[in-house]
Amino acid sequence: MKLRIIVLLSFFMSNLSAQTQFTTVPQYPSQTDSIVITFDVTNATHSNKIAGYNGDVYAHTGVSLRYSDGSILIWQNVIGAWGNNSTQPRLVRIADNTYRITINNPRKFYNVNDPSVDIVQLCFVLRSSDGTKQTEDVFVPLYEPGITVVINSPDVRALYGDPLRSPYFTENYNPVLIRAKSAAIGAKAAMMKLLINSETVSVVYTDTLSYLFTPDKSSETNYIEIIAEDTTGISDTAEFVIVAVPQQVDEPLPGNFEHGINYNGNEVYLVLFAPYKKFVYLIGDFNDWKVNSEYLLKRYEAREDSVLYWIKLDNLQPGTEYAFQYLIDGKIRIPDPYSEKILDPWNDSYITSSVYPDLISYPYGKTENIVSVLSATRKEYVWKTTDFEKPPKENLVIYEMLVRDFVETHDFAALIDTIGYFKKLGVNAIELMPVMEFEGNSSWGYNPMMHFAVDKYYGPADKLKEFVDSCHSSGIAVILDIVLNHAYGLNPLVRMYWDTTQGRPASNNPWFNQTSPNQVFSWGYDFNHESNNTKYYVDRVTSYWLKEFKADGFRFDFSKGFTNTPGDGGSYDPSRIKILKRMADKLWETDPEAYVILEHFAPDTEEKELASYGMMLWGNLNYNYSEAAMGWNEEGKSDFGRISYKSRGFTTPALVGYMESHDEERLMYKNLTWGNSNGDYDVKELSTALDRIKLAAVFFITVPGPKMLWQFEELGYDYSIDYNGRLGEKPIRWDYYTLPEHSDRQKLFEFFSELINLKKTYGAFSTDNFVLNVSDPIKEITLVDSSMNVKIIGNFGVASGSAYPQFPNNGYWYEYFTGDSIKVDNGTTFIKLKAGEYKLYTSVRISTRKDSSSENGNNEIKENFYVYQNHPNPFSSVTLLEWELPQKSSVVIKLFNPLGEEISDLVNEIQEAGNHKYYLKANKFNLSSGIYFVNYNLNGFIKTQKIVLIK
C-alpha cells in the first residue's frame, strides 16, 4: 500500500522553506535507485545551527520502514553511532551551506534484507565533525515503481496506520484546499479522481487535481480518497481524514487539581496548561491512539495567558499502565510535562529487563515522539526509615557520583549494594548527578528532557526510593543534582511553543526565553526565571523530589544562569539573588532543613549574600590542589587558600570545597602525567603519586566546612576526564578496591576514611578559629578549639625542607598518623620534612579509628584496652596486643610514657598469617603506675592502644 509514502512527501514539501531543503536525483527515487541528495542547510532549524560552518559534515542517517501490518517506524537501521566519524558517511561540500551525499541502493546501504519490509523514507541529521552543530531531522521520501499519489495540500502526515490517528483538522468547518499530483516512475498518468465519504466529487484527466472542500456540519469526520491511474489502468490510492473540530466546551476544573496527572481515587484528572492553543485531544492506549471527540479536553480560561485544558478518566483498569499523549492543535504530540514515567521510541529498546523489569512497550506504529505513562491505581512506596536526621551542613562530606560510571549495570539496584562501601569510607552524603529523564541513555544528565521522571536507564523510580531509604538507614543523606537553567528540544514545554522559522522557542513561550541572555555559557533552551509560569514549574519540581523521594536537598546546576540579565553572569546581579532566594524559600516551605547547593561561581559579594541566606556554594580548587599535588609551587599556583570559606568573606561555613568534581581533571592523572621530579623523587611514579594525594587530602578534608569528593577519588582514579571523550563512559575500576595488587590504592582509601572520621568526630575540624598558611611549598593549617588544637604541616615541594611553625600552645603535641610526639616551647619548634611528607599534630593524644573488616579481609583487633593491677616491678610480661592476620603483614610497635615520650621500639618485623599475641617485656624498663600508650602500624593502618598500669 502506497499511501504512507505520498502523505510523507506532502508534509516535507510543505515545510521546506522553514527547514533544511533538499533535492534528489532522480526526482522520485525508489528504494533500489542510486540517489544523489543535495542539502541546503541555510534555514536549518536546530538551535545549534550548522549554517555558516566550514568544516567536515557527517550524516547521522537511518530509514523509516513500513511493515506488513502497515505500521511505520522511523529512524531504523541507523548507520554507526552518533558522533562516530569513522562509521558515519561524510558529505561533500559543494558550496556555502550546501552538501551532497550519494546513497547507492538504500536497501543494501542500510542493510534492509526482509523483503516484506519497505523503506518509505531516508532519515538524516547533518552534523559538524565535532558534533556541536547540526540540522533538525530531515526526511527524504522514497517511491514505488509505477503511479503514485502525492498530496500537496492539506498538510497531512498519516504515519500511523489508521488515518484517524493523524487526521487533518479544520476549525469552524472552514474550507480545505485539496491538491494532489500523480508522480510516475516508468508510467504515464491518465486520470485522477477524488472521493469524499465514498462519493466521487471530482475527476480530472491530467496529473494534477485541485478541489476546495467545505465540510458539512452534519459530520465531524470526512474520509478522503484520491485515486491516480496510468494509461495501462494501474492505479494508486491515497487516503486521509479531515476532522472538523467540535465546539470547545468551557468548564472550570471540578476540584483543586494541579497541572499534570492528578490521581483522585479510581479517577485520573489530566490538566494541561496551554494558553494561546486552540484545542487539545487526548490520544493513548485507552482509545487506540485515534482521534475521538469524546477525548477532546475541556477548557478552563481564567484569562488569555492562563488557560487549562483538562479531562477526567474513570474507566481504567486497576493495576494497568496506560501510555498517552496530548495532540495540540492537531499538530503537536507531547507527553504530559509533569509525567513521572515516559516511553522513548529511540532509546527504550536498549534498556535491559534486568535494569528495568516489565517495562511496557512503546506504541510503535501508532504515534511518534515521547509519550507519558499513567497507572489507574498508583502504588505508593513504603518507607522503612522515617526518622532520618540530616547531617549538619558544616560537617558534610559529600560523595558526587555518576551512576553510569560507578556500577557496571548502571542501575539503582546495584547502587544499593555499594552502601557498605560509603559507610566504610565515612561520607555522610551522596550527590547523584542528574537522574531525571534526559535525552538519550548514556549521558551526564545535563541535557534534561523531563524533570519529574526518573531516567529508566537507571531503573524504576521505586529503586531510587529504596536507595534513598537505605542511605538514610545508614546515616547518609542523598542530594540530587538538578538542572533548571535549561531544557533540551524534546522537553514538551519547549515543543509546545516553538518558532520553526527561527529554530528557537516562540516569543509567547510561557517558560523559556527565545535566546539565552548569557551567550557565553548557554546550553539547550534557557528558562525564563522571571516568568510566573517558570516559578510555578520550578517549585513543583523541587517539592516533588523532596516529598516523593525524600531527597535531602539539591545541587543546582549553573545557578548563575538563573537570570535574564544580559552578559556572562560574572557580575553581581541583584535580580538573580532575588530569584534564588525566592526559589530557596519555596522549597524550604516543603523541607526547612533541605540543602540548597549552588554551582554559582559568581562574585564573592553575591555568593556571600546567598551563603548568609542559608545556601551553600560550590568551591572549585581543582587547579590549585592539582598544582600542589604535582609539586609545582611557582607564582602561587599551589595556593589553595580559597578552600577556606573565610577567604571569600563568608561568615558561615557554606563553601562546599572540592579538589575534584565531574567537571574537573583527576589529580592522579595529572600527577602521573605532569608531576614534578627531583633526583630520585618523581611524582610521576605510582606510589609517590598516591602519597601526594594523601598529602593534598590532609590539607583538604581537615579544613572546616563541607567538602565533596568525586567518585573513586579516594582510590586514586587516574583516567583523564577526556578519556573516551569528555562525556564518554569511563572504566569502572572496582579492582582498585578489591585486588591485592592495588594495596597502595586501598591504603589511600583507608587514609581518606581516617580523615573523614576525624572531621566528623572532633570539633576542632569544625572550629571557626582557624588559619591557613598555604602560599609556600611548606604549608600549614592551624585549628584552635576548646576541646583540642590541631597543627598540620606538609611539604608540597619535591625536595626536603624545614620550618619553624607556630603552634597555638606549648607542651606536648601528638602526631596522629605515627603516634610520635614533640614538645613545643616558646610557641614553635624545628621540623624537617622530606618531599611530600606531612604531619598532623593534636594537642590531645587521640587514637586512629579502628579498622572494620572488609571484603578483602583487613586485620581485626580482638582487644583494644588493657588494665593491669598490682603488677610486679620489674615484671615478666603482660599481653600487649592480640589479633588475627589474614596474610603476611608488616608490624611496627612503639611504647610511649604518660608524657607522650617514646620509650623504645618493641617490634619491627614481618609476621606470617595466623593468630598472634604480642607481649610487653616489662622487665626491660622501670615502669611506674600510669597510662601508657602503645602505637602500632599494621600494613599502613595505624592505631593507638591505651594500657593502664596500677601498682
From TrEMBL:
SMART domains: Aamy. GO terms for biological process: carbohydrate metabolic process. The keyword Signal applies. Residues 400-759 form the Glycosyl hydrolase family 13 catalytic domain. It comes from the Bacteria. InterPro entries: GH, GH13_cat_dom, Ig-like_fold, Ig_E-set, Secre_tail. Residues 1-18 form the signal peptide. Gene3D superfamilies: Glycosidases, Immunoglobulins. It holds the Pfam family Alpha-amylase. Keywords: Signal. NCBIfam families: Por_Secre_tail. Belongs to the glycosyl hydrolase 13 family. PANTHER family: GLYCOGEN DEBRANCHING ENZYME (PTHR43002). This is Alpha amylase catalytic region.
